[in-house]
Design goal:
Layout (H helix, E strand, L loop, with lengths): L2 H11 L4 H22 L6 H15 L2 H23 L7 H28 L5 H34 L5 H4 L1 H23 L6 H24 L2 H16 L20 H31 L6 H31 L4 H19 L7 H20 L7 H19 L6 H17 L3 H15 L6
Helix pairs in contact: 1-2, 3-6, 4-5, 4-10, 4-15, 5-6, 5-10, 6-8, 8-9, 10-15, 11-12, 11-16, 12-13, 12-16, 13-14, 14-15
Length: about 450
């Protein structure tokens, strides 16, 4: 036993959390010392040092830390999206560099939180997780430099200036980021595919999955809406690992009530009418200018058709609300009201002239209400105390609004299909009713079904 070797082991054990050190450090240190004496080692081996650091970081990957990383990643990527939607993007090189840095730091935090979730679930081992962390950090940094070089190249081309070394180096930075990102994803997928016995097959599949996925992730970072949505998913999953359970809210009933036949018929009828009207509005939006010249050109016909389609979609929401409220109680009214507000905002935006200054703010409002609809829908199942749940609903709503909110402008084309599906589902007799009839009929035959 040497004092220097013991000090090195003690420094390696500092990678672990303080609480772990107080409980386990002494025992682990003695075990490491005994093993080193038996093997005649004068210092920790490279493998031992790597493993201790990796497992120390793994111990620090608590659900709370993962949630914080995902939340920060979400915030860093929501900022550029909001700036883009609000028209706040400028050509100032410093602001552009700050935006790119925020996006890629956020992307690194989101990928780190995702890897930590896989580590905690046992899908990947600590050594692979630490290697992935280091490689992904370099990959995201090179990606940020590559995007900066791409922007500099565009500016130089627009101004007619000679190309700089930075813009010329774009392929090198982009290729290096792709290569490192592929390697990091290879380590993750190789761990996820551990159930496969053939190492050759695991290697081939991991390579085939990692290369295109790394490219897709790199491209998606330029338009960070995908990362925003991914951050929201990681945030919700990590929140459920905080050790809290969903809390019941007054007015929430977690029952699977069966609608009676009258309710089902009413919902099916309303949904069918909404589907017919919705398909008519969509057809008018696409072809109305051909058979009704008085309406104006194709743009005017499109706006009138989408206006009508958005209003008709409200009928579909109301029809589905009856079934939703019956299953979830009064708490379901929140997302219903938010959805109707989003559709009214869309309809109002289409009612204005195309150059009206209020058109775009109304679309942004519709996107925000669409995100709020999604957040309120899943709110009853979220874990934790009210403050945590409110924070999660806010984060999820903003993420959905940024990632998917603008899709609400195309709802007039989608709503008729949803209405038709709802009508078909309401016309089908549920299994519960069939089972009740199967039991009730024999009782009625014996005279036991009468009051």
């Amino acid at each position: 036993m040497t004092a220097r070797r013991r000090q090195r082991y003690e420094r390696l054990l500092r990678w672990y959390p303080a609480e772990w050190q107080r409980t386990n450090a002494a025992v682990v240190l003695e075990t490491l010392e005994e093993n080193a004496d038996r093997l005649g080692q004068l210092r920790p081996t490279i493998g031992e040092a790597w493993s201790l650091r990796a497992h120390g970081i793994a111990e620090r990957a608590s659900p709370a830390l993962i949630t914080i990383a995902a939340a920060l990643g979400l915030l860093l990527n929501i900022g550029p999206v909001i700036a883009l939607l609000s028209g706040g993007v400028t050509d100032d090189p410093w602001l552009s560099g700050l935006r790119i840095t925020a996006q890629f730091v956020g992307a690194f935090l989101i990928s780190t939180a995702t890897g930590a979730l896989l580590l905690r679930s046992g899908r990947i081992i600590a050594e692979s997780a630490m290697a992935t962390l280091a490689i992904s950090a370099a990959a995201w940094a090179l990606g940020a430099v590559a995007v900066t070089a791409w922007g500099v190249g565009f500016d130089e081309a627009d101004s007619g200036a000679p190309r700089s070394w930075l813009s010329d180096a774009f392929p090198i930075f982009a290729g290096s980021a792709w290569l490192l990102g592929s390697f990091a994803l290879f380590l993750v997928t190789h761990g996820l595919l551990r159930p496969l016995r053939s190492k050759t097959l695991r290697t081939i599949l991991s390579t085939l999955l990692a290369i295109p996925t790394a490219l897709a992730l790199g491209i998606s970072t330029v338009t960070p809406t995908g990362l925003v949505f991914g951050a929201a998913v990681v945030l919700v999953v990590s929140s459920f690992q905080l050790g809290t359970r969903p809390t019941t809210t007054r007015g929430v009933t977690y029952r699977r009530a069966t609608l009676n036949q009258g309710q089902r018929t009413r919902i099916a009828t309303v949904a069918a009418v909404a589907a017919v009207l919705g398909f008519g509005c969509a057809a008018f939006a696409l072809t109305g200018s051909m058979w009704l010249p008085a309406i104006g050109d194709a743009t005017d016909a499109m706006r009138v058709g989408l206006l009508g389609g958005a209003l008709v979609a409200i009928i579909t929401v109301i029809a589905g609300a009856e079934a939703l409220v019956d299953r979830r109680g009064a708490v379901a009214l929140g997302p219903v009201v938010a959805a109707i507000g989003a559709l009214l905002s869309v309809a109002l935006s289409y009612s204005l002239s195309i150059d009206n200054a209020m058109g775009w703010p109304l679309v942004i409002l519709a996107a925000a209400l669409t995100g709020l609809t999604g957040g309120l829908l899943i709110a009853p199942g979220l874990p934790g105390p009210p403050l945590l749940r409110a924070s999660l609903v806010t984060a999820i709503s903003v993420a959905l609004a940024a990632a998917l909110g603008l899709i609400v402008t195309a709802v007039p084309f989608v709503a008729p299909f949803l209405a038709a599906i709802l009508a078909i589902r309401m016309t089908r007799r549920p299994r519960g009713i069939n089972a009740m009839h199967n039991v009730a009929d024999p009782l009625a035959e014996r005279g036991l079904g009468r009051a």
